[in-house]
Amino acid sequence: MQLRLDRHSSVPMYRQLAGELREQIVSGALAEGYRLPTERELAARMSVNRATILQAYQQLKDEGLIASKVGKGTFVLPVASARSASVPSAPQPPVPSDLVHDHSHPRVVTIRDTRRRDAAADPEPTVIRPPWSVLFSDYSNRFTYHDIAEAERAQRGGAGAADGHRIIDFATGSPNPADIPDDLLRAVSLEAFASREFDGQPESPIEGFDELRALLADHMRTRGVQCDVRNVMVLSGSEQGIDLIVRAFVNPGDCVFVEQSTFFPALQSFRSADARIVGIPMDAHGMRTDLLDGYCARFRPKLIYTIPTFHNPTGATMPVDRRRELIDVARRYQCLIIEDDAYGELWYGAADASLPAHRPVPLKGMENAGYVMYLSTFSKTVTSGLRTGWIVADPHVIARLAALRRMVDQHTSTSSQRICLELLREGRIAAHVRTLTAAYRTRRDAVTRALTRYAPDGMRWTVPAGGYYVWVTLPDGVRSLDVLAACRARGVTFMPGGVFDVDETDDAHLRLNVVRPDAADLERGVRVICETVAEIRDGLGGPATTRS
């Protein structure tokens, strides 16, 4: 099977690949029953992202040309099953492979088939479905929906959770509902809605209420960032900031640098814009900024997306010297930095001499020329339901993002803005964060103690100075998806490393959100994970030692 891709063509590569395979199937070069390479094998052979192969295969499945069988592979379907694959002049509705031989469902046929059908001979009702693979835009097709499905699957417990124990959820990237300050939110909500300023709920400017922007600017100055109202825009969550920045700056083919493992919704945004995403290697201190000069010289990025403080998923914090190096590289190569600081408020303090002695100053506090666009949110410190964040950037950027935002949501919810305004007044949120970080530090310590006690040889983990996440490295040969499947059956969930990996190939790590489970469940959850890892490793023939 010979396939060719034109990397200079304006036609997306998944469509080129689908066309090449379609031609060979229709011509008979690939006979019915032929087993196609796996997505991973073909991606390696063609030197493309696995998502490209998945999209091409999905299009051919929608057209009824191929079908996958669990545990066996992907095969070319018989001609009778692939009637609509001859690429007619007008798009024909696809024949989903899972309905080809299933007569318990209404038969799916083309309009042409409908005209020919003898109603007396074939009384089954006809369902004509839209040709989704043709109708969906390239923008939406560039999303890797399998990543979303895998993340959602990881957050659901398995059948083993029905043994009387609740699910121990290390997967979900949000706080424990019990930590949401209900009394505080109730009080500030009543005050906000009773305020004379709230009467009639005046419409917010696109950038947000000036008073809230001013309070956010004051708050940022306490973090070492010099800014004023002109530099601040209120967002409907910090993810909206990523989306707006992508719309404002990224053209198809532009290069974006990210940490090799990173926040996967950000990867989705960059992929949707058809950006070229390059993962920069990491170590225990975050992005390897010593490699950036060489990478920039070769790839000439337009944006560098980074989570330098309490990184998601690894928990790493970038030291001051690396932060300076990153900013220097951005200046030299005239590229912009997106600083995602969702967890920056959650510094645990200087209790451990091996961790930072001071709360890290954001990148935005280390330069004033406009190269850094800073994003943060209330969702990690108050409640994910608040959906309110902010961006601090050059006024030129704020003006452009505000103009683009008119097409999205006009402005952040007036009610949410009023609540955040009351939270920021008189230091209420600062007092709440102090309470929160003390509790989170205790949970981190409980998790790391349990790992020290139960982890088998070859298992390593990070000890974060703040934020939510402990990043676990598995023993050689142990796959995170195998561990997840076994743990879900026992009522414990976590997020596998491949979800965050730029190349989707990391199967040696897992992410634990140590603040999500109840404190009483932490040790048991970690023990289940460690025992599962040991069982899988021992099944591979590794040493059967576990710490106790």
> What gap, in angstroms, lies between the N and C termini?
54 Å
The 3D shape can be described as globular
Enumerate how many helices there are, as a single number: 18
Unreliable stretches (pLDDT < 50, length at least 5) are: 82-120
Q: Please, how many domains?
A: 3
Number of strands: 20
**Average pLDDT value?**
84
Give the amount of beta strand, in percent. Answer: 5-15%
The strand order across the widest sheet is 7-15-14-13-12-8-9
Helix and strand content put the structural class at alpha/beta
Mind telling me the C-alpha Rg?
A: 26 Å
Tell me about the largest β-sheet.
7 strands, mixed
**Could you estimate the helical fraction of the residues in percent?**
25-40%
Cofactor: pyridoxal 5'-phosphate
Keywords: Aminotransferase, DNA-binding, Pyridoxal phosphate, Transcription, Transcription regulation, Transferase
GO molecular function, one term: DNA-binding transcription factor activity
Pfam families: Aminotran_1_2, GntR
Draw up the topology in text.
Elements lengths: L12 H15 L7 E2 L2 H8 L3 H13 L3 E4 L3 E4 L30 E2 L2 H6 L9 E2 L4 H4 L2 H4 L3 H10 L13 E2 L12 H13 L15 H13 L9 E4 L2 H12 L5 E5 L4 H9 L3 E5 L1 E2 L2 E2 L4 H8 L3 E4 L13 H14 L2 E5 L31 E6 L11 E4 L2 H11 L8 H11 L3 H27 L5 E2 L7 E5 L6 H10 L2 E2 L1 E2 L12 E5 L8 H18 L9
Family: Belongs to the class-I pyridoxal-phosphate-dependent aminotransferase family.
Protein name: Aminotransferase class I/II-fold pyridoxal phosphate-dependent enzyme
Pfam family, one: Aminotran_1_2
